[in-house]
Design a protein that fits this description.
about 240 residues, about 75% helix, Helix Hairpins, mainly alpha, three-stranded mixed β-sheet, about 5% strand
């Protein structure tokens, strides 16, 4: 009885495997991009929350320093009014020294307030930059979701359409070819097959014995590559050279 030639069937299945792999990448690729952007936006929101806390703490610190500055100014004015009430030169000089020291301290505090307010403005700008990045990322995410949904629906429809022919083609394998194919497919899914190319496994470029190739050509036995574990087949355009 003439042995069935399973090589054309395996070649068709390999082509389908590649098509399925592309379609699954289209389905999963959109999902991964969406998840990546969602994670990015979540991180940006955490960054914004941290930036706003820094802004709030800086604002509180500046409010406290400005309040201290105003209180010091009041104390200076009070001491100036005490100059007229000084009982002698010694007391007058003492009050003047206190005023001078307070004015010097207030000058330093005033500089700190100005620097702190500039720093507060820079913190607000950084927070606003993060907020703007969130808005932009959310717009990109909405666009990707819309496009990804459309692409995913088309890819899933194509997968459903191909499955019938795919299962019918698989059922055309018999005997050890069917058993090996199912075992390898269970482990490697759509990376289960590799053609023989110039006496090499096209999957991993391992050199194959000539007698193995001859047996594959005649469909006498089913073989998997000892190196990569893919099931081997002889493509229609195979050349031994």
């Amino acid at each position: 009885m003439e042995t069935a030639n399973y090589n054309p069937i395996l070649e068709i299945l390999h082509k389908m495997h590649r098509q399925f792999a592309v379609l699954i990448d289209e389905v999963n690729g959109g999902i991964l991009r969406i998840r990546g952007l969602e994670d990015r936006i979540a991180q940006l929101n955490r960054n914004l929350e941290a930036a706003l806390k820094v802004v709030l703490n800086q604002r509180i610190a500046m409010d406290q320093k400005q309040a201290q500055l105003e209180e010091n100014e009041k104390n200076i004015e009070r001491r100036r009014s005490q100059l007229d009430e000084a009982k002698n030169d010694r007391e007058f000089t003492s009050i003047q020294n206190q005023i001078a020291a307070s004015e010097a301290a207030n000058a330093v505090l005033s500089d700190e307030v100005l620097e702190g307010l500039d720093y507060l403005d820079s913190l607000k700008q950084k927070a606003e930059q993060v907020r703007e990045e969130i808005r932009n990322s959310e717009a990109v995410l909405a666009d990707i979701r819309a496009k990804s949904q459309e692409m995913r629906e088309k890819a899933e429809a194509k997968i459903r359409e191909m499955k019938v022919e795919f299962r019918e083609t698989e059922r055309r394998l018999n005997g050890e070819h069917s058993m090996l194919y199912r075992r390898v497919f269970e482990n490697k899914k759509f990376d289960s097959l590799a053609p023989v190319h110039h006496q090499h496994c096209a999957g991993c470029n391992t050199v194959l014995p000539v007698d193995m190739i001859a047996s594959i050509a005649e469909s006498v036995h089913a073989f998997e590559c000892r190196q990569c574990g893919r099931m081997l087949y002889l493509p229609n355009n195979h050349r031994m050279g």
